[in-house]
Amino acid sequence: MGSAEGIAEVKKELLQSCLEGTLSRHSTQGAHGVNYHHPYTGTVGYSFFMPTMSLIGVGSINSAGAQIQELGFKKALIVTDKGLVKVGEVEQITQVLDTINVKYVIYDGVEANPTDKQVEEGVALLRKDNCDFITSFGGGSPHDCAKAIGVLATNGGKIQDYEGFNKTKKAMLPLVAVNTTAGTGAEITRFAIITDTSRHVKMAIVDWKVTPTFAVNDPVLMVGMPKSLTVATGMDALTHSIEAYVSTISNPVTDASALHAMKLIMTYMRPAVHDGLNLKARDMMSYAEFLAGMAFNSASLGYVHAMAHQLGGFYNLPHGVCNAVLLPVVEVGGPKAGVLSDVVEGRGPDLQEFNAESVPHLFIDIAEAFGHRDIGEDANLAIKRVLEDIRRLRRDVGVPKNLKELGVKPEDFELLAENAMKDACGLTNPRIPTKGQVIQLFRNAYEQ
Ligand SMILES: NC(=O)c1ccc[n+]([C@@H]2O[C@H](COP(=O)([O-])OP(=O)(O)OC[C@H]3O[C@@H](n4cnc5c(N)ncnc54)[C@H](O)[C@@H]3O)[C@@H](O)[C@H]2O)c1
Ligand SMILES: [Fe+2]
């Protein structure tokens, strides 16, 4: 036992028994300290990913020029969409570049749920115009498309080559991500979600080398968001925070980010939806989406996203709306969740929830972040409150009721479930479902 490996093994055992000892006084509390209800999960530590710098808060776009200048870039490929060019919003970034005499060319072909074809168009323009950096301007779609363009610019090949975890060999081209929605968190994350047009699936490229160089989150750029976009993107951020909190690889840093994001969203989402010019609400929703992005960027996501990506890729539906419809079903079951017992061997008819059944204590923390002070250690009460709150919020802000309303077809559930099971986001769900269960979750979301 004198060898280096022997000593390392003893240290590992000591650490494990020490952590499990802490937990032995309580079935779930302890591993993440101060009353969070996470169980102990391992001895290999955690990774935490973030851009080295972010500009955030009212007026932060005004500081972007100085930072770009400091990095010494010469010519930008601005990646954006036609909507933002049409309303003149894109001038918020062109003016910054004009002021510091940095040249640019605009690629505005990005559409919601960006595709492999749009990535290729962007790469062609970038090469033709010899751009030495990229600036994405918009919501998650321009940021993701820009990341994929940046990857191909330095690594070559096609974007399908980088689907999955850490497949790139070289850093992507530098990316300044200026965000206009609240939001996907894509402006700070190591995820790029691109639709493969031949397979009709959204590929998840998860790679720390696609993290933007720096991000700008100025709520002034978000006040023009129409109501439906504020709803979809706010529900996306709420989903990020909940999925990150119940993820199997959450840690105290991501916990803190996720719980505070939930608190802000439950306080400021309604005001942001009902009065888009409420700058305080926009500002707080911008912090919330940033915090939720910080949380899932390292803790990853779960089956809401794994399933939502299939709906987005197959029917070209807005990402946040898909999440909003699926969220209560995957996290805390649907009104017909009991029928899951038909497909889960050995389960009684009392099965009421999906993820919540695996990690009920985590819902105590979520219910507290939602503002409930009377939960104590009652996980069932917490699950009930969380479900009621999500449903009430969805009603108040006008989320479509179910997948039927979105035009989804039950005959596609088998294929959608098969693809959802291959999505990288599902790996950290607190519970890995069978294909039959995923189909049933789609059915529940169809009829809820
Ligand atoms: N990479 C990640 O970490 C990550 C995380 C979640 C979602 N996503 C992806 O992000 C995409 C969705 O992004 P999104 O929801 O931000 O929307 P989006 O980027 O698809 O934009 C949707 C529409 O909103 C308009 N818009 C954007 N900002 C506006 C503003 N301030 N005012 C008025 N109109 C505005 C755009 O012109 C566009 O027409 C999906 O493809 C999803 O898969 C990525
Ligand atoms: Fe998302």
From TrEMBL:
GO-annotated biological processes: fermentation
Pfam families in the record: ADH_Fe_C, Fe-ADH
Domain Alcohol dehydrogenase iron-type/glycerol dehydrogenase GldA: 51-219
Protein keywords: NAD, Oxidoreductase
Statement: the UniProt record of this protein carries the keyword NAD: yes
Segments forming domain Fe-containing alcohol dehydrogenase-like C-terminal: 230-330, 349-446
GO molecular function, one term: oxidoreductase activity, acting on the CH-OH group of donors, NAD or NADP as acceptor
InterPro entries on file: ADH_Fe/GldA, ADH_Fe_C, ADH_Fe_CS, Alcohol_dehydrogenase_Fe
Keyword NAD (UniProt): yes
PROSITE patterns: ADH_IRON_1, ADH_IRON_2
Matches recorded under CDD domains: PDDH
Family: Belongs to the iron-containing alcohol dehydrogenase family.
Name listed for the protein in its UniProt record: Alcohol dehydrogenase 4
Organism expressing this protein natively: Riccia fluitans
UniProt lineage: Eukaryota, Viridiplantae, Streptophyta, Embryophyta, Marchantiophyta
